[in-house]
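Final report, section 2: Outcomes. Of the targets proposed, Nitroreductase is the one most frequently requested by collaborating groups, and we therefore present its record in full.
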Amino acid sequence: MKMDFSIEETVKARQSVRTYQNCPLMAEDQDKISTYIAGLTNPFSIDVNFHLLENTSSANGEKLGTYGVIKGATNYVGVSVAPGELGLEALGYSFEQLVLYCTSLGLGTCWLGGTFDRSGFSAAMKLKTGDLFPVISPIGYPAGKKRMLEFVARWVAKSDHRREWNEIFYADDFAHPLTPTAAGDYAFPLEMLRLAPSAVNKQPWRIVKNQNAYHFYEVRPTKESKLGIDIQRTDVGIGACHFHLAAMERDFPGKFEKLADTGIQATDQVNYLFSWVMN
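The predicted structure is given below as tokens.
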């Protein structure tokens, strides 16, 4: 769905907020978020489950924990999906839609993939057996002053750094970088993708423009996750969200598809995930 806010302004305004005013969301904002979630869809036609939680939502009444990374937050959202092809990509896409919407409301969020009490949140969310649960985010009103931990976390994650175009976008194959000039009108969706957040800012997406399609690849993880979840697939979903929302804002016709053959000779360092096929 097209957004009722500027994609570029919202993407550039979004940042990870780790320190919040110690108060719950106002009922009006909670209602807006719930209504927005109810209308969320993704281009992969996969059901993504959202779980709105409060800080005392754990099964035994204890506070949900983030090991000190998040301070002051009362409200959280967890997200889960059944295992399957493009499930994690759909989760990343849908969750980032919500994050951008919250940003447009002036609310703070922060993608968390590891530094939280996973068992406590899992119990509070009442997950189905086998469901994939890679991330949560606080949702709240940013505090006026950041903690030193917040500056350190941003420095460690290199949050303000983004790869250059010639490192992530290619033309016809992986040997020839795609320039903004060559991308033409699609320079805008690609730039919004380039600015997307990712776990420890790895930006694991690689995009190859070939004929009438943009093919999305994931850089193969260098080590296996302890949770058995390839979080980088979620990251590519986040990037696809930025790309798609920007394309829809400009009324660029097309759709996401998983092709049997992209016609591109890929290296063994990447996995093909899906393509944006222009109409």
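The mean pLDDT is 91.
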